[in-house]
């Protein structure tokens, strides 16, 4: 099971947080802070696994993360997930974001966190991996966006995003 | 025109969308909180609008704010509104918001059930998809129960997109509503072979998660998974399956054998490291029962792991070490051969890797390399930055040194100096660990005491260096050990007076109380030794000076705030004063004083207490007070369903309290004290007290900077021992060689070259000094039996997924509740009670309560716990002129049983589905005070039950008869064992004094449950209900004797009316005969006379009339009252 998925930047600002178990808002923020603290002090070329988060889980849980430019992608998982598999999954996630946003950068995540959530929902559902095939994910996301567009076409004309 | 209006209103209301909000927050870095609070006000305004688009926009913004840590639960209802929009765009926003901030306690979730059901059955697959995704995050037990059936239908949806989501969410449903597992399982199994790989993968995923909780249930799926494993090409699925096999192989050794071939093939063929790693892991897991054939695959694993560890990719290195530690548990030898590699990893710059390597070290050490490894670790300790890692190192050092009774330590002087060096760690919280090691070594290794005492004396002398860390509360624990060792073994001290002086310094008073107490006590021991030494001399002034010093210094401790310190100090102070008096009279006191502390204290083995036989007559299991009723907790039980049953063995983590937090707590405490009328405030009058007992935080403590390596005078460095030891060993080796040469010369054989150049083997290393490890004391009685049984424990079983047998066919009652408005769809209640519950359509609220009840019943059935106590008619000697049909008797008995079940509620959820007990209580005619209880034990479980012991808590009135010589609380052994499914009867005799009152006796049945691989102790609590009826014995009586009896006038009369009984008269009589042990004397038309006798000879006469009233006479009114009550109760249950 995946217990939480966090994305934050080099300064610890959350860009996306998805908890698959309920915590109250304060605890969530504390978890984000603590995770950032743990992850950020690690060098670039060390392993991507980390034990010892105190707030989430216990000895069974691991943090698996990847660092891309200004963003950290952190998955908190238990021992039923394959460590290397999750690393691949993070890669798939980022590549999917890249496809969906065309050259994704931190700004995309900042302004369109809802879209990121929607993409993530096609990959991971309730803490379990739903789909690992990037093309399949993109197809579904696109189809839903198209549907949304057809519904909101009328409003889109009055106002431009961004 | 209409469009224009819409446009206009939207322009007005859409003053901020999510992007604007984010931009705004970024532009207001200075006063972010203020900006957001105005935004929230705006959002509140927007939520009041009727326009759903505006609401959706507001909810979207709230979702973002939630991520930033703002509580948005106040908008829960608006979120539900947006969720129920017909437009996909808004629906998605709503579900996203709900998935982020709804949880089990969100009350509006109740309102969503119908909406979600509607979305699940929407023709648009994305509506369904969004609903499933959202539901996966906030599913509650109620939702799970209500929607389980809808989701099950979706598992066979035409679109794979829906199918896979439905399959995946089933796991969450199982978690919240375990009863759904059995009905859904066949379909889930079907999905393993779904044509769509995504659905297949989802099904594998779900089953893997389920199997993690209870692998046993899924063994039957092994062939299917085996097929999948050999056919699938999806690495994700393969990894999951292989992980699942890793969990299954320990349960089924044959599986491991079968897996080896395909797994080795995969290991050789795959290019995916993730897959390879999991294969290796599973092969390792299958090796608990290693046979010769597997050695090859095992070697392959170790080889592959070595390649991983040597890889430049840190991730692979980490995982390699992780897997190695699993091998270490089963095959330590094969890991040891890679020692070089692992030691190398200790130097890695990555902390994760170092920690893994540290774990492996434990199995790595030998006599030969212990010093070297520890030396390396000590260097790391010096270099380490974070306290966590340093503490980890410290515990590891102590772990590997002390493992298996200090097996690998050849030189204890070295070890003591390592420990002393470790005391110089700043801010560690493992002071107590070091201290206990010091104590242990000093006590158990006699030869080291001289050295240890000298070291400890220096430690005490330099205590100020350690107490610099006082406020961190860690290392000063060491002083506890130091003081105790110096006191206890004071005869080895070189300069006891100096040490005594060090122990009585005023600064000591700043140490924690328990340490001060040890200081005071051991100062007394030291004093005794000093007196002994000095009295031998002619100069008596020295001895008197020492006494004077004690008298001068001790008052400081007498004033201590700590009771323990105060008590010991004032005690010893008086003693010293008395000694001083004697000294002034030139009386020799040393002998007597040292007699106070004479005798050696030996360590006691941790298991010693268990070996002490329990004194006769002491029942440790008996309740001293009545246990609190547990029946209330039953309702809460299901909440904890199987999330808590996983053993939680997380490492204990201490949270370090930072300065701020401390200050806050201090403030809070002061506040509390100020408000508490019972607390003595620090008013001027009580100032003195306050000064005497200063809070630790008020003492100014000078922080000593220890960053510069300290060279404490007199403290040896452990390094020198390494050198010395090396020299010593070399010397020994040289000597040995010499000897061998001699031997060889004598023998003149040419084959003995082995020893010459090869590295010395373990056995060659002899300890520096012969170490006499004192064995721990054990009580003598128990010395011989070394194989102790696992201590009995009480297992509190909760109903959980694990306990459902998935192979059993579905019972009617287990079908998922289908919500339907037709009566036919409503679930039927279990029929066994014979209560016809009308299956009329009910409103949801009412229904839920009913379902709850059903659920409870199901649970009870699953648990199969049926401990029954019932009383019925003695089989023989019963004569009645009216027929009592056996079936009638049985139903009545069952009713009785139901009552008993209620009565014994507290145990029904305590126990395993193990045994069933039926008992029959019967008076003994020969002896007026004996009652025989026959109990039928039936084993309804699949396990073997043995060593059953039956025990009842005696009351004043009733006692279980026990064999001669056993105590009043001993249990009786049941003289048989029970294989699964077998029943047998045992009889127990009770002595009863007064029979006029009914009684309930509490008892326990303890037994051992033996499975193939394990055996556990179990306990079953029960109550025995002795009714007054059970003291009655059916005795035939002739009508003339009966008439005489009635005429005698000794009998008191009483009468009772039975309300609402409408059965044929002969049935009524049969019932009384059957249940209450009466016989009919005479029956004349509308009335009948009945008679029975108690075991103590009381006559009970009844006159039963068809108007259903009973007139009764008996020579004991209390007994009669109770019997009538019981009769009444029997008929009130019809």
From TrEMBL, chain A:
UniProt main location, coarse: membrane
One Gene Ontology CC term in the entry: cytoplasmic vesicle membrane
Topology in membrane: Peripheral membrane protein
Function, as annotated: Part of the AP-3 complex, an adaptor-related complex which is not clathrin-associated. The complex is associated with the Golgi region as well as more peripheral structures. It facilitates the budding of vesicles from the Golgi membrane and may be directly involved in trafficking to lysosomes. In concert with the BLOC-1 complex, AP-3 is required to target cargos into vesicles assembled at cell bodies for delivery into neurites and nerve terminals.
UniProtKB keywords: Cytoplasmic vesicle, Golgi apparatus, Membrane, Protein transport, Transport
Domain AP complex mu/sigma subunit: from-to ranges: 1-147
Family label: Belongs to the adaptor complexes small subunit family.
Localization per Swiss-Prot or TrEMBL: Cytoplasmic vesicle membrane; Golgi apparatus
Name of the encoding gene: AP3S1
GO BP annotations, alphabetical order: Golgi to vacuole transport; intracellular protein transport
Name of this chain's protein: AP complex subunit sigma
Family matches, as Pfam families: Clat_adaptor_s (PF01217)
Protein species of origin: Pundamilia nyererei
Listed InterPro entries: AP_complex_ssu, AP_mu_sigma_su, APS3, Clathrin_sm-chain_CS, Longin-like_dom_sf
SUPFAM superfamilies: SNARE-like (SSF64356)
From TrEMBL, chain B:
GO CC terms, sorted: AP-3 adaptor complex; axon cytoplasm; endosome membrane; Golgi membrane; presynaptic endosome; terminal bouton
Basic residues composition-biased segments: 738-754, 847-856
Compartmental location: Cytoplasm; Golgi apparatus membrane
Alphabetized UniProt keyword annotations: Acetylation, Coiled coil, Cytoplasm, Golgi apparatus, Membrane, Phosphoprotein, Protein transport, Repeat, Transport
SUPFAM superfamilies: ARM repeat
UniProt-listed Pfam families: Adaptin_N, AP3D1, Mu_AP3
Biased composition regions of type Basic and acidic residues, renumbered to the chain: 636-672, 723-737
UniProt cross-references to SMART domains, sorted A to Z: BLVR
Region (Disordered): 620-683, 723-768, 816-892
GO annotation, biological process: anterograde synaptic vesicle transport; Golgi to vacuole transport; negative regulation of autophagy; neurotransmitter receptor transport, postsynaptic endosome to lysosome; protein targeting to vacuole; regulation of melanocyte differentiation; synaptic vesicle budding from endosome; synaptic vesicle membrane organization
Protein name: AP-3 complex subunit delta-1
Organism annotation: Neolamprologus brichardi (Fairy cichlid)
């Amino acid at each position: 099971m995946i217990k939480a998925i966090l994305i934050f930047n080099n300064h610890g600002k959350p860009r996306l947080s998805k908890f698959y178990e309920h915590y109250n808002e304060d605890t969530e923020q504390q978890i984000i802070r603590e995770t950032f603290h743990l992850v950020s002090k690690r060098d670039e070329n060390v392993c991507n696994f980390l034990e010892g988060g105190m707030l989430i889980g216990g000895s069974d849980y691991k943090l698996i993360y990847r660092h891309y430019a200004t963003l950290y992608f952190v998955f908190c998982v238990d021992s039923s997930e394959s460590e290397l598999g999750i690393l691949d999954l993070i890669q798939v996630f980022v590549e999917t974001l890249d496809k969906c946003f065309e050259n994704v950068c931190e700004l995309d995540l900042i302004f369109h966190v809802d879209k990121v959530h929607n993409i993530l929902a096609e990959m991971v559902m309730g803490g379990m991996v739903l789909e690992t095939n990037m093309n399949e994910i993109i197809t579904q996301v696109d189809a839903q966006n198209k549907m949304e567009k057809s519904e909101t076409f009328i409003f889109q004309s009055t106002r431009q995003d961004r | 025109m209409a469009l224009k209006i819409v446009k206009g209103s939207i322009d007005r209301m859409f003053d901020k969308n999510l992007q604007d909000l984010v931009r705004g927050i970024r532009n207001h870095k200075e006063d972010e909180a203020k900006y957001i609070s105005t935004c929230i006000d705006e959002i509140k305004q927007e939520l009041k609008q009727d326009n759903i688009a505006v609401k959706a926009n507001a909810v979207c913004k709230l979702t973002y704010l939630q991520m930033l840590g703002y509580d948005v639960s106040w908008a829960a209802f608006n979120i539900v509104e947006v969720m129920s929009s017909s437009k996909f765009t808004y629906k998605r926003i709503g579900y996203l918001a709900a998935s982020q901030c709804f949880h089990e306690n969100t009350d509006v979730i109740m309102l969503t059930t119908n909406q979600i059901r509607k979305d699940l059955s929407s023709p648009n697959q994305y509506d369904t998809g969004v609903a499933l995704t959202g539901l996966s995050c906030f599913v509650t037990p109620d939702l799970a129960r209500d929607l389980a059936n809808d989701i099950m239908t979706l598992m066979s949806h035409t679109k794979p997109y829906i199918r896979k989501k439905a399959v995946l969410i089933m796991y969450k449903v199982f978690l919240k509503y375990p009863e759904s597992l059995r009905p859904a399982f066949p379909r889930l199994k079907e999905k393993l072979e779904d044509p769509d790989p995504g659905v297949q993968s989802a099904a594998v995923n779900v089953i893997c998660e389920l199997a993690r909780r209870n692998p046993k249930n899924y063994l039957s799926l092994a062939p299917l998974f085996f097929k999948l494993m050999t056919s699938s090409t999806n690495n994700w699925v393969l990894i999951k399956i292989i992980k699942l096999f890793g969990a299954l192989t320990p349960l089924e050794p044959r599986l491991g054998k079968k897996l080896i071939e395909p797994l080795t093939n995969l290991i050789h063929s795959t290019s995916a490291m993730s897959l390879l790693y999991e294969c290796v892991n599973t092969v390792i897991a299958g090796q608990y029962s290693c046979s010769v054939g597997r050695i090859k695959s095992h070697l392959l694993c170790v080889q592959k792991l070595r390649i991983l560890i040597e890889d430049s990719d840190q991730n692979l290195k980490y995982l390699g070490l992780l897997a190695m530690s699993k091998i270490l548990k089963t095959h330590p030898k094969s890991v040891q051969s890679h020692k070089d590699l692992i030691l190398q990893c200790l130097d890695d710059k990555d902390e994760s890797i170092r920690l893994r390597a540290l774990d492996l070290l434990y199995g790595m050490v030998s006599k030969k390399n212990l010093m070297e490894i520890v030396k390396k670790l000590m260097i790391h300790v010096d270099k380490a930055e974070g306290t966590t890692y340093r503490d980890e190192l410290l515990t590891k050092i102590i772990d590997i040194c002390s493992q298996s009774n200090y097996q690998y330590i050849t030189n204890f002087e070295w070890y003591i100096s390592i420990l002393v060096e470790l005391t110089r760690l700043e801010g560690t919280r493992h002071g107590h660990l070091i201290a206990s090691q010091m104590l242990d070594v000093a006590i158990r290794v006699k030869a080291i005491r001289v050295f240890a005492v000298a070291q400890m004396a220096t430690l005490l002398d330099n205590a100020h260096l350690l107490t610099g860390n006082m406020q961190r509360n860690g290392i000063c624990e060491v002083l506890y050990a130091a003081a105790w060792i110096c006191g206890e073994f004071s005869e080895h001290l070189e300069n006891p007076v100096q040490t005594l002086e060090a122990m009585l310094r005023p600064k000591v008073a700043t140490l924690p109380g328990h340490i001060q107490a040890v200081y005071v006590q051991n100062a007394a021991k030291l004093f005794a030794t000093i007196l002994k030494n000095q009295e031998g001399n002619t100069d008596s002034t020295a001895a008197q000076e020492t006494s004077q010093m004690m008298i001068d210094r001790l008052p400081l401790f007498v004033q201590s705030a700590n009771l323990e310190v105060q008590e010991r100090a004032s005690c010893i102070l008086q003693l010293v004063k008395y000694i001083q008096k004697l000294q002034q009279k030139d009386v020799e006191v040393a002998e007597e004083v040292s007699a106070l502390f004479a005798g050696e204290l030996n360590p006691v083995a941790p298991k010693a207490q268990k070996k002490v036989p329990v004194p006769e007559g002491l029942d440790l299991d008996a309740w001293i007070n009545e246990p609190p009723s547990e029946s209330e907790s039953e309702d809460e039980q299901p909440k904890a369903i199987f999330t808590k049953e996983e053993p939680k063995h997380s490492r204990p983590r201490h949270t370090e309290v930072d300065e701020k937090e401390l200050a806050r707590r201090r403030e809070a405490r002061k506040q509390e004290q100020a408000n508490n009328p019972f607390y003595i405030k620090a008013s001027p009058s009580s100032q003195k007290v306050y000064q005497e007992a200063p809070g630790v935080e008020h003492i100014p403590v000078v922080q000593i900077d220890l960053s510069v390596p300290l060279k404490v005078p007199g403290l040896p460095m452990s390094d020198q021992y390494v050198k010395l030891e090396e020299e010593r060993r070399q010397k020994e080796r040289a000597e040995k060689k010499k000897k061998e040469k001699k031997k060889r010369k004598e023998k003149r054989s040419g084959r003995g070259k082995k020893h010459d150049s090869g590295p010395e083997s373990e056995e060659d290393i002899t300890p520096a000094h012969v170490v006499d490890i004192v064995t721990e004391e054990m009580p003598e009685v128990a010395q011989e039996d070394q194989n102790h049984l696992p201590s009995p424990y009480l297992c509190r079983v909760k109903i959980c997924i694990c306990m459902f047998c998935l192979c059993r066919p579905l019972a009617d009652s287990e079908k998922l509740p289908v919500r339907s408005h037709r009566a036919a769809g409503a679930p039927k209640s279990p029929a066994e009670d014979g209560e016809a519950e009308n299956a009329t359509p009910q409103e949801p609220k009412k229904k839920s309560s009913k379902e709850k009840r059903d659920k409870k019943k199901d649970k009870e059935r699953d648990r199969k716990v049926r401990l029954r106590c019932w009383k019925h008619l003695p089989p023989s000697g019963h004569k009645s002129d009216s027929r009592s049909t056996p079936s009638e008797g049985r139903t009545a008995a069952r009713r009785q049983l139901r009552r008993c079940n209620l009565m014994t509620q507290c145990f029904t959820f305590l126990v395993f589905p193990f045994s069933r007990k039926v008992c029959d209580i019967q008076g003994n005619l020969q002896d007026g005070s004996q009652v025989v209880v026959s109990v039928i034990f039936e084993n309804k479980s699949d396990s073997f039950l043995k060593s059953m012991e039956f025990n009842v808590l005696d009351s004043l009135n009733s006692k279980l008869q026990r064999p001669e010589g056993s105590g009043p609380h001993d249990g009786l052994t049941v003289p048989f064992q029970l294989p699964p499914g077998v029943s047998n009867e045992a009889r127990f005799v009770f002595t009863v004094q007064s029979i006029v009152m009914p009684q309930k006796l509490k008892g326990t049945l303890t037994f051992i449950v033996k499975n193939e691989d394990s055996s556990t102790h179990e306990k079953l609590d029960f109550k025995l209900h002795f009714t007054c009826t059970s003291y009655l014995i059916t005795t035939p009586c002739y009508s003339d004797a009966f008439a005489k009896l009635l005429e005698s006038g000794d009998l008191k009369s009483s009468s009772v009316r039975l309300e609402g009984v409408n059965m044929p008269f002969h049935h009524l009589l049969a019932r009384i005969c059957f249940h209450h042990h009466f016989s009919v004397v005479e029956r004349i038309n509308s009335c009948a006379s009945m008679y029975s006798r108690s075991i103590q000879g009381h006559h009970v006469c009844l006159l039963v009339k068809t108007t259903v009233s009973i007139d009764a006479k008996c020579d004991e009114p209390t007994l009669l009252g109770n019997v009538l009550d019981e009769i009444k109760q029997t008929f009130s249950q019809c």
